[in-house]
Amino acid sequence: MSRSRNLLISIAAAVLAGLLVYGVYLVQVRQIRLQETTQVVVPKQFIRAGVLLTEEMLEWKPVFDGSVLPGTAQRMEDVIGRETVVPLGSQEPVLAWKLDKFHLLPGQNQATFQVPKEYILSVSNGIRAGDSVKVYLSGKDGSRRLFDHDVIVASVKSAANVEVDDPKNPSLLSRLDGDAERMYASRREANGSIDQINLNLTEREWLELDEACRAKQAKLVIAFASSSLAASP
């Protein structure tokens, strides 16, 4: 009887020792994995909200695998050309939720200005938030391009102060999916005509626009720009 008991005790001890060794092995493997590094994208220096990211602003940084959060950027192409929604700290891994691909926020040295309705002669009905537009000045002395670059639309509203879009198929979501056909279908099924338009402009651009239209001798023609299509994913 004592031999059987001793045998059982020996077997139990061997099993416990084996489990202990296996447990130590798992802990060591986990520590090794935590010490392995992955290259992630980080800003070279502090970046404010509303800045369009370029390759010159970014660099690679090795971090421990165990500290990589979901949504951390590990490819430059996922970051370059995006707009910062919140400030990014120097050497802080870039997270997807901190970026926006539609550039709705005013950029550096810009603000969002609502263009007075009396300043506008016409607005292309297909324009939506996030689009690039060309701004022309039309008056008694002829027509000319007001700015030599495209301008980003922050928002377009109907007379009911509702964002002009297809509520069942928002244009921005179609652009996010890279579905150009569905994007333009949503523009045709919009919920109202454009009554208000907000543009992201620098102070100098706004003053130039206001000066050109304030005397009521000329009005704006705001046209959809082909670069909006190129900006789609």
Features:
two-stranded antiparallel sheet; 233 residues; elongated; alpha+beta; seven-stranded mixed β-sheet; 3 domains; disordered C terminus; single chain
> What is the helical fraction, as a range of percent?
25-40%
Structural class: alpha+beta
Q: What is the ordering of alpha helices and beta strands? A: HEEEEEEEEEHHEHEH
Low-confidence runs: 229-233
In round numbers, the mean pLDDT is 81
**Shape annotation:** elongated
Would you report the number of β strands? 11
Question: In words, what does this structure look like?
Answer:
This protein is α+β, with helices and mostly antiparallel strands. It has three domains: 1-35; 37-100, Alpha-Beta Complex (Type Iii Antifreeze Protein Isoform Hplc 12), CATH 3.90.1210.10; 110-230, no CATH class. It has helices spanning 2-35, 171-177, 180-188, 203-214, 227-230, and strands at residues 37-43, 58-64, 83-84, 99-100, 110-114, 120-123, 132-139, 142-145, 151-157, 196-202, 218-224. The strands form three sheets. Strands 5, 6, 7, 8, 9, 10 and 11 form a seven-stranded mixed beta sheet that branches. Strands 1-2 form a two-stranded antiparallel ribbon. Strands 3-4 form a two-stranded antiparallel sheet. It is elongated, with a radius of gyration of 29 Å. The relative contact order is 0.14.
